[in-house]
Fold this sequence. Notes:
Chains A, B: It comes from Roseobacter ponti. Two copies of one chain form a homodimer. By secondary structure, the first copy, chain A, is of the alpha+beta class.
Amino acid sequence: xxxxxxxxxxxxxxxxxxxxxxxxxxxxxxxxxxxxxxxxxxxxxxxxxxxxxxxxxxxxxxxxxxxxxxxxxxxxxxxxxxxxxxxxxxxxxxxxxxxxxxxxxxxxxxxxxxxxxxxxxxxxxxxxxxxxxxxxxxxxxxxxxxxxxxxxxxxxxxxxxxxxxxxxxxxxxxxxxxxxxxxxxxxxxxxxxxxxxxxxxxxxxxxxxxxxxxxxxxxxxxxxxxxxxxxxxxxxxxxxxxxxxxxxxxxxxxxxxxxxxxxxxxxxxxxxxxxxxxxxxxxxxxxxxxxxxxxxxxxxxxxxxxxxxxxxxxxxxxxxxxxxxxxxxxxxxxxxxxxxxxxxxxxxxxxxxxxxxxxxxxxxxxxxxxxxxxxxxxxxxxxxxxxxxxxxxxxxxxxxxxxxxxxxxxxxxxxxxxxxxxxxxxxxxxxxxxxxxxxxxxxxxxxxxxxxxxxxxxxxxxxxxxxxxxxxxxxxxxxxxxxxxxxxxxxxxxxxxxxxxxxxxxxxxxxxxxxxxxxxxxxxxxxxxxxxxxxxxxxxxxxxxxxxxxxxxxxxxxxxxxxxxxxxxxx
Amino acid sequence: xxxxxxxxxxxxxxxxxxxxxxxxxxxxxxxxxxxxxxxxxxxxxxxxxxxxxxxxxxxxxxxxxxxxxxxxxxxxxxxxxxxxxxxxxxxxxxxxxxxxxxxxxxxxxxxxxxxxxxxxxxxxxxxxxxxxxxxxxxxxxxxxxxxxxxxxxxxxxxxxxxxxxxxxxxxxxxxxxxxxxxxxxxxxxxxxxxxxxxxxxxxxxxxxxxxxxxxxxxxxxxxxxxxxxxxxxxxxxxxxxxxxxxxxxxxxxxxxxxxxxxxxxxxxxxxxxxxxxxxxxxxxxxxxxxxxxxxxxxxxxxxxxxxxxxxxxxxxxxxxxxxxxxxxxxxxxxxxxxxxxxxxxxxxxxxxxxxxxxxxxxxxxxxxxxxxxxxxxxxxxxxxxxxxxxxxxxxxxxxxxxxxxxxxxxxxxxxxxxxxxxxxxxxxxxxxxxxxxxxxxxxxxxxxxxxxxxxxxxxxxxxxxxxxxxxxxxxxxxxxxxxxxxxxxxxxxxxxxxxxxxxxxxxxxxxxxxxxxxxxxxxxxxxxxxxxxxxxxxxxxxxxxxxxxxxxxxxxxxxxxxxxxxxxxxx
Lengths: 571, 571
């Protein structure tokens, strides 16, 4: 299953869609020159193509397994992890003081996109570490930072996130894991956590768990939650892994996909942990790590979509079938209009989603580099849109890739089905896409829609100007933008949250559709008469109109939904 | 994984949506009284719930396997097959002279829906036999009919369809399997066929293959194809399985899903076969069998969607999480607007798809019972729409069911993922949904759209009348219908087939959306103020508007598609 990192696409998007130069003008990221950028993309692309892509099938065929309480990873994964670690890719955005590269999240996102496309189940491991690194950088004491960060960044140790409990699910506030002060500055952590990605493995010498737990007497709900770091092996005085902590892997899940990634049920039985951040400050620290992970998960979807597109393209351009009356026919199934429609859709969707994802990453970087509240609000707004659209794109494009293969797509050896199976979880983990949508129309609209309107203003201004050179495309994007604005006005006027929530997912998807139109329009403006203008025309003419139906759905309100009683709906 | 056959839904649809009484007024189906109908639905429902549903998980966990050239099926499948055979369900529409029940396809469709929902991989076996029975009834000699039909109908023998060859795929005309006359009225069939569902097994004593092959000197392409019946064991003089024929199972496919259904690569090495129908008349005979199977496959999708809905509903109403401010809150995740949106969507989609499928079946029955060409054209028009929308509904609803489960959905033990894996192939086999769409806008519009316009007239008339009592719903369906009419007018005016094909899939889906609106509107009219009116409001307000975006896509033409060259699209 060959994979070729789409380095040129990233270079184009950085230059023409997200205006990466803005970042280079800041003091913080002045070192991210064009040369550095190009070198980073090229080298990460090489590792993805040569080292990681060959691990994609073995991870599926030989899942991680639990043997005598220890997790054995898939063949080759230890080498893959080392290549990621040795290249410095885990700490790409981390503080250089601890061994990080100190590069923008935007570049890290491009790298994560390529590595996800090459081998999703392995790439999930560094993504977890990255979330932990960021949480520690922001919230840990200096002693913890000094001890853990160099190890995590070097990939000697790895990180996990422990949020979910069996009885709590998405309702994090219902968690019951306890942490009792031991009197020596440490805590005894006890409880069970589920869905712990890379909860244990044999690719690094220690596994550091960030665990949400409740201190004695803590209030109920999310405000009573604190965060702890609980390593598999307790560091000795020299900072090396010492005695085993009181924690264990109860079992690994048997999953639809992502077989190379060990998903553990973890049990903590008075395990020693250290508080990260303030007492009862767990949610704030968790959100640091979650927001990072949400961006990363959206990007996982896009990476898989890219790989599934390449895979289907390779099949289609090799598969001779039927006859075409057209000039320049290749004799392969790409001559068929419907196959071509599918392949064009796949390519156009990946491009749109990637543009949105890198815009989100840019907003994060600019917020950090400039301290500007508007960039911060932009990042907050785009995070759920990117997470959901990136993952939906991963699922839809992989599914279309399977369909392009016809009967072969249903046969596992072909490899098309693995993309579908692997990527499916991205719409669920780090907050389901439904939860992202509630975040978008709830918390992210607590500003009365200000951040949303500001972004739509930007889209409308570009579309309006574009009318002069690309009248049909400019007009279509402008219209779509205004329809989205009206829906947003309707939304923020609703006082009952359920009226917002009832259409939140369609609203979120429509927003992504409109932003995808903006991404493609900017690409068309930068490549007049070229392939990108043609692809933009395809997207704007054929895919963008979906937003209308979605926005009708988005504004339907909650009444009809709840007028259907449980008895009405019951099977 | 409990399954409860939705017997009431069928009774409602037969009475209020498809007007089953029309059929009872024909001489052919005068015996399908209300009592008979109810008895059939109830008993098939019982077999589905009690006998077949318990086989769903074992089939997935213990796939059919090839042992020393013989296929061993999943645990319990032999008993399941016997229950289907002994109940007479294989020959439900077959001629009573040969042991069939002689009932309408409409009732058979309801039965197949239930059995597909209970256990898709096993239900595929009788579906294959049903296609073969119909092909033999229409095209075989009396001697063949007398020998094979009673055995197939009784389930002592089973039937398969052998169309696809590795190099030919969807391009049936490219097949190269040969049949040479042996001079005694039989033929020696040689070649390799792939994707043969239930190509071998141990649940019946003989396996009868309908094989497409080419006679010596036959013209190239589809017109040179003939059809042969090639049994695994040659019948002896008493009509019992005698010596083994020269054919073998080369291998079984390792598939994404449907593990309980053995999908064989078959090799024929001078195997003895008998001609079915005229020499070079293979395509006509094949289409008899294909049209039957296409209806059946659309219904497979709906059956799985029903089961996935029930499964998700059971989970959601049992899963306590979060708090709701609403009165009558259950404390489960069904209180959440987005979960409720998903469950309502699932239920509404299943109902729409089922109404369309049974309308298609009714048209088939009425065409046969009355000889009326308009019914025949209606059946021809609805066949691809049902096949594609039924299967897309199966895929989309199963996927939503997985999402309702959250993290649990990705864990195989939950069972939600199996629906997704199993149903995925239905959008591919018996002609991919892309091929269905080409059939719809090509062959099925060779009447200048007459059959389509006639159906839209019917929808418009109902919607127009409905305005008096349900103004908003009537108006919305009427508008959607007129938009579909305009798109159809555009479509039939295109002389370049690629202009039709370029938007064929979106056109097909939009047509199904509009027909779904019609189905729900009729349900609302029949259940004023009841659950079905509320569900209709949900569908018409929220899901129907999707047709607009789809129809924009449908009318985009082929130019932009082909202006994107292979170089432009290349990864």
